[in-house]
Amino acid sequence: MKHPLPAQPAHIGILRLSALGDVCNLVPTVRALQRQWPNARITWIIGKAEHSLLAGLSGVEFVVYDKATGLAGMREIWRQLAQTRFDVLLHMQQALRASVLLMGLKAGVRVGYDKARAKDWQHWFTHRQLDVHERAHVLESFMDFARLLGVEDTRLAWDLPIPEAARSEARRLSGEGDYVVISPCANPRLRNFRNWSAQGYATLIEHLWTQHGLKSVLSGGGSVQEREMGERIRALAAAESVIDAIGGSSLKGLLALIEQARLAIAPDSGPVHMANALGTPTVGLYATTNPDRAAPYCWREHVVDRYPDAVRRYLHKDPQTIPWGQRVRHPDAMALIHAEDVIARVDRVLALPRPHETLEPRDEV
Q1: 5 in helix, strand or coil?
Q2: CA distances from 226 to 18, 119, 219, 266 (A)
Q3: How far is 257 from 225, CA to CA, in rounded Å?
Q4: CA-to-CA distance for 146 and 195, rounded, in angstroms?
């Protein structure tokens, strides 16, 4: 017998800790829940960095978990929420760590992914599972939680909060004039292999400067890998064409940089999804991850997509036969992306009307 779902939930819990791009893709689901039940209380248990990105999101109470604190941090959250019982708790993190955290929380019903989409045995920890949705984009998978609860209005909306201090930070970094944000590196995790070449970026930066008069602002974290990538790009590009802001901005500052940019360019990583959430034109560079599942949602048609080629060359398989979302973990996969491919996409996107010149409504998911 299935656990019943609340018809009028008074308190909705969301458990999604990471990552930056994923929490951006989850916000439209939060907005859909708020439209359906404007008086409902929403509490989101979220990771530390992700909270710094979304802090101030209207109508949402955040409970922050720092994964570095391990089980001790979980116990602190359990104490903090000891008197809280959610009418429904949406378990949106497909990781065993999150499922352990879930077990110390009280809820009338815990909702998780269907078996096909669940990982780390997540379905063992929930009362109800989503309906099957084959080949779903990450954003659509999140929206499936709202659909299961009976939400029909799935229009996309974000309204990410950006304080004026962050906009001032962005102006200090970008200077005067129009610019493009390039975030050259994805998360420097083991066997990630999502980064394109410094030479490719330098060629693109030269084109943006000479053909469009646009400076390129490099963004990213302060890791050694990211800083070294910035140095290599600057060594190959004309000094007047690039501003290296890698490691130089807060996450809110990065949002503000992207908000005012003519265009954002990055591999599969948080910045393309931040740009998507802000309505900034976006070109994603994809070869190791499937863009049908993880591209910037509103700009999927503008992705540089070499994922099928990478699957054939490095996995020796037909892209239609592999598991949905399988990654190509090969260090040479991103080399399948050529500078002329990226330039063609960039030129096409820059030729589109600017966002403030067209006010077409968002499609439903």
Answers
A1: coil
A2: 20, 30, 9, 13
A3: 22
A4: 34
> Distance between CA atoms of 203 and 306, rounded to whole angstroms?
19
Q: Which residue has the tokens 């940019």?
A: 261
- Residue 66 backbone phi and psi in degrees, to 5: -100, 115
Residue 275 CA to residue 254 CA, distance in Å, equals 10
Q: pLDDT truncated to tens, each residue of the chain (365 aa)?
A: 578 999 999 999 999 999 999 999 999 999 999 999 999 999 999 999 999 999 999 999 999 999 999 999 999 999 999 999 999 999 999 999 999 999 999 999 999 999 999 988 898 999 999 999 999 999 999 999 999 999 999 999 999 999 999 999 999 999 989 999 999 999 877 678 999 999 999 999 999 999 999 999 999 999 999 999 999 999 999 999 999 999 999 999 999 999 999 999 999 999 999 999 999 999 999 999 999 999 999 999 999 999 999 999 999 999 999 999 899 999 999 999 999 999 999 999 999 987 654 334 345 55
Can you spell out the DSSP letters for 310-354?
A: HIIIII-S-TTTSPTT-----TTGGGGS-HHHHHHHHHHHHTSPP
Q: Would you put residue 116 in left (φ > 0), alpha (ψ -120 to 50) or beta?
A: alpha
Tokens of 176: 């005067």
Residue 199 main-chain phi, psi, to 5 deg: -65, -40
DSSP E strands: which ranges in 105-202? 106-107, 110-112, 128-129, 179-182
CA distance linking residue 331 with residue 190, whole number of Å: 11
Write down the residue that tokens 């592999």 correspond to: 322
The token duo for 91 is 């378990």
Sheet holding 179-182, edge to edge: 242-244, 215-218, 179-182, 263-267, 282-286, 304-305
The amino acid occupying position 75 is R
Q: Determine contact, residues 342/266, Cβ cutoff 8 Å.
A: no
Count Cβ neighbours within 10 Å for each residue of 259-295 and write b for 16 or more, e otherwise. bbbbbbbbbbbbbbbbbbbbebbbbbbbbbbbbbbbb
Residue the block writes with tokens 């017998």: 1
